[in-house]
Structure formats: C-alpha cells, structure tokens
Amino acid sequence: MAISGFMKGLSCFHRAKPRTKIHPLHCFARRSREFSISSSSIADDDPVLPVLIVGAGPVGLVLSILLKKLGVRCSVLERRTEFSSHPQAHFINNRSMEIFRKLDGLAEEIEKSQPAVDLWRKFIYCTSLTGRILGSVDHMQPQDFEKVVSPTSVAHFSQYKLNRLLLKRLQSLSLLGNELLIGHECVAIDNTIDEYITVTTSQIKDGKKKEEKIQCRVLVGADGAGSRIRSLVGIELSGEKDLQKLVSIHFRSRDLGDYLLKERPGMLFFIFNTEAIGVLVAHDVKDGEFVLQMPFYPPQQNLDDFNSENCKKLIFKLAGQELSDVEVIDIKPWVMHAEVAEKFVCCNNRVILVGDAAHRFPPAGGFGMNTGIQDAHNLAWKIAAFVKGISPSSILKTYETERRPTALINTELSVKNFRAAMAVPAAIGLNPTVANSVHQVISAGFGTLFPSALQKVMLDGIFSIGRAQTSEFLLNENNPVGSSRLAKLRRIFEEGKSLQLQFPAEDLGFRYLEGALISDGNGASTTVEPPSGRRREYVPSADPGSRLPHTYIRPLSNSPTNKVTLSTHDLIPVDKLEFLLIIGPHNESYQLARAALSAAEEFGVSVKVCIVWPADTNVGTEGKSESPLSPWTNFIDVAEVKKLGTNLVSWWDMCEMSDDGAILVRPDEHIAWRVKSGVDEDTISEMRSIFSAVLSLQ
C-alpha cells in the first residue's frame, strides 16, 4: 500500500481530467469458462472516435488500458461473441511483466495466481510421461529470482486467464459500455479523407446482418495472425511460411496433473516413442490443464483423425498409460510461420498494425504475445501525443521505425530457437526435416499417382518406421547406435543447444537505433548484435533507445509514506504523458533541468526531474533541490539503495556515465536522449531541439 500511495503522489502533477462521461462496463457473463460481453453501438454524440482498436486479445486490451489511463478515448472491436478458453500463449517475459506492474497490480496478481516456479522451470524429454527420461533442462538460474536487473520476474500464465484479468482492469477503469464492441467484425476501410478513417463494421443482431460505419482518427489492427485489417489495407508479409503444421489439443486430467506434480513437474514435455510423438504443455499441473501439440500432415491426415476419442488415445500413448478422467475441451489446427509485415503503419499514419497482425513467430521462446504487448507500450504514448495535439501524425511512423527492426530480430531468434528444438529429435534419429520431405514427396511427388487413402497408408507406414528409432531395443547404452545418439543428446543439453525459454539480453536489452530519440554519438553502438539463439545475460545500458536500467532507490523525504524502496521505473507514471529527466546534484545539471522544464512547458508536455544522490545521503536532502529548481516543483530527490547481494556499482557507473551527465526518459521507459558528462552552455536551445525531435516536430 505504501508503494501504491507513493505512486499516486508521483502522478498528481498535471493530472488530466476525463473528457468523457463515465458509464459502467456492460455485463461480464461467464459461460462455459468463457467471458461474454454485451454488444453496443458507438455513441452518437462523438462523431469521430480518437482510436478504434480491432481485436480484444491481450495486445488490443493492453493498448486500450494504456490509452484509457492516458486520457485517450478508444473503442475495441471484437468479431467473436465469446472469449476463448484455449490457453494459447503462456510465458510472460520480464519486460512484459514490467509493463503489467504498472497496470494496477497486474504483475503481482499474475505472480500470485500462476503455478509455483518449481512446477514449470524445466523442460523434460522422455519416451512417455511415465516412462524413461532422456534428459531435462532447468531454465531458471539464481539471478532470475533476485530482481536485480528488473523489479519483476518472468511468469507462466495462460493467455485466456490473462485476458480475464485485463478485462477486469477495463472494468475497474469504468470503461464506457459502448467502447467494447463484441460480435462486431470490420468488413471495409475507407481512407479517402485525410482527417479520419471510416470503418464499416458488421454484426448479426436478431438473426439479421447489421452494418455500421465508425469514423476514427487512428485505426489499430490487433486482430491476430490472420489480420483482416492487414488484408484490407493490402500490407504483405515476408519471411518463412508453413514451418510446421500442428494440431493443438486442449484437455484436462487431474490424474495426470497429480502424477506430474509428484513425480516430474515441468512446463514442456517432449515425448518420443514408437506409437506417437508430441509436445505437452503443462499450463497448470495443479488444475490438470494441458495442451498437447501434435504434428499434422494434411491432406493425408485430416481433422477427423483428431476427433475427441482419437485424441484421448494419443494422450494415453504419450502418457504411457490410460487415464480415467481425460476431458478433451478443444481441438484446433494451426500453422507455424515466421513472417513480419512489410509495413506497420500506412494510410497517412492512421492505420497501424500491432501484435500478431504485424508479426507471426514460432512459439519457441514465447516472443509472440510478449512482442505484441511491447508494441502496445511503445505505441500508446505516441497515439496520446498525436490525439492531444502535441505531435503531428508523423510521430506514429516512429512506431514502425522502432518496432519493426525489433520484430525482425525476434523472428530470427524464434526461428533459431525452433531449429534448436528440432535438434533433439534429430539426435535420436527422428529428423523432422526428413519427415517433412517424405510428406512433400507423397503430397506433390510420385505419391500423387496413388489414391488419397493409399497415400495415408504410405505416410503412416513411413512414420511408423521412423518412430521405431525410439524403441528401447535401439535407444540404449548397450546398442552402439543408441549409445552414440544418447551421447549426442547429452551434449546438446550440456552446451545449451536445445530449445531455450529465456533470453534476457533480448528481453530487456532490445534497443531502438532511430525513431523518437536522439543519437548522442558518445560511443553508443550504431548496430544491434544479432541473436545467437542461446541465452545471454542482460547488460544494463543507458544508450539512447535502450530501456531505462532498473535500480532501487528511496525518496529523500521525511514523509512516512515515502519511506519505501522503489524502482527507477516507478518514477515514470502510466497515467500521464510525462518525460523523466535524471540528473545529479550539480549546478550545471540544475540549469539543464530548468531548461528542460521550460522547454517541455512550451511543447505542452510534462517533465519530472529526478535528482539521484549517493547511497549514503541522509533523509531531508530534498530541500536542497527546491531552490535551484524554483519555481518548478515537479521534481524528486532520491538516493540509491544497495540491497544485500546486489552489485554495489553506483547508478552512474552502471550507466557508464558521470554524475554530471543527464538522461531523458520517454513515457514508455526508453531513453530518448542522454549526455554522458557535462552539459552545453546553451541549455534552453538544446532542450528545445531535443523535445522538438523526440515529439516529431522537426
């Protein structure tokens, strides 16, 4: 509560008043483990909506919450009439959890609700869930729990559960009932008028199709991998298509959950035996909730081969025994791609793609949803700056400038991680490339000479021969072939060449090289190191475009409510369009701060000044900054906190700067500008130029 109260105090400056009358959110109905929300129409009293978001998945909902907190009215359009309970994504990385930490305690609620870390920290490779273990990899390291480089930790939490928590946040924000439009589909886009986009929506009401037109200043496509928005505006994808076809089987079994809980807890189980091959995702072992991913080879195989009864048989084969309580909930085919949209922004900067609509990754490493959430975080403050008249629409183009290179890097990393996953079955004689080649020959080669039924028999027969490589007779230490394969498998695990879960360097260390920032030319790299496909640790950086490094601080105040330990990230509010200037307690730095406060006032934005004092500074030092910053009061004096077991290097040393330098941080916690040491004499002109560039005014 102390931290919550302090954060409310930090955000009290220049609080924006709501522009709209607040109404209660329309009903939350829970039906068959799914949410359903009443549909409504756009309010007639506001002819042009500031922002329309198409897609009410995690990315669209996060963006709507961020915009709402920034005082920007938006509506969310969702074609489905109910929210799916299919788990889908489940790994939330550090950076996404940092964003969730700002959303009314969302990160804390996820941490409390998720399974205990010891239940999901491992990937297990086995011949069956009750059979021999071929190897296991623990993906959590001691530093992952210490919260030294980040105030949060990663999480394992199913997407449909996350969606429910996000919907509750919208409800707590008193979202207008007519701002969440369920059962509405976007069917046409008209961008012929420069000032706004006209969207035609369709819904079935009382058994009849009803169309409605919505005018909006910004249209955001958050409508997933098969994005209708992307298709309507004609944006193409580039990359690798059809890496793998799979069937996702969502089921529950408390018996299986109880067994794994006691005998071999893990997140992913890679199962190879003579009868079946599959990957089991343990979403919640305590609740017995699982998703089984099975390779799918159409047209020889079809969805009828994966009916509920057949799926149960597959589960039994992979479990190594029959289970009495298996409940198959949902069966979905899907295709794995590695593609990025050619453009993220189009139509005079008024149509924007985010999340899976902009990039489609293999699930290896969990980059899909996390990259999308970070898309939303990057975009929200820029939309707010545009809608509030602070910046022209060109600031929205910097979203593409910054996020598309990040998406390309994450695509490359996820593909490398997927290839690493394939190295394990290849090591034991089950090369997926060979399986795909066999399927290709049967589907498009000589196999086409035979009837489809015979093609299926041929495919099943060849795959059966392949699975024989996993037999106990062959895959054992006494068999020279098996011994060699098992040795190769051990080397893959020992050298970290199998599928990885965490990538701290890319998770926290991604950096924008150009966009809404100023490159300082003071030794900052002008390139980004390509991903290796293996875990690399995050190294804090204060280079422009980087995420603000986290460290612990304490306010230098005599107020009892301020006697708390905070993260540097807590200095940046989520409910106000505010920049943060970090300086040391020097006369020249105070002069720079006054110039920044003055320039920001001219440009219509807020700046908070943070004065970082050494760790041994006494409480009450805040008065020392009052006089040099007068008449401005939007500042805070803080001292570094050295927690037991953490790196004792100072804040400025960690940033590779001297304490007479300065850092300007954007509302999305990325560094817009910095000076390593010393400041220019003409600080007013300097700060005007900086804000003008960052806000796309020049």
From TrEMBL:
It comes from the Eukaryota. GO terms for cellular component: mitochondrion. GO terms for biological process: ubiquinone biosynthetic process. Residues 50-407 form the FAD-binding domain. One of its GO terms (molecular function) is FAD binding. InterPro entries: FAD-bd, FAD/NAD-bd_sf, RIFMO-like. Keywords: FAD, Flavoprotein. It holds the Pfam family FAD_binding_3. The keyword Zinc does not apply. The keyword Protease does not apply. Residues 523-544 are annotated as: Disordered. This is FAD-binding domain-containing protein. The lineage of its organism: Eukaryota, Viridiplantae, Streptophyta, Embryophyta, Tracheophyta.
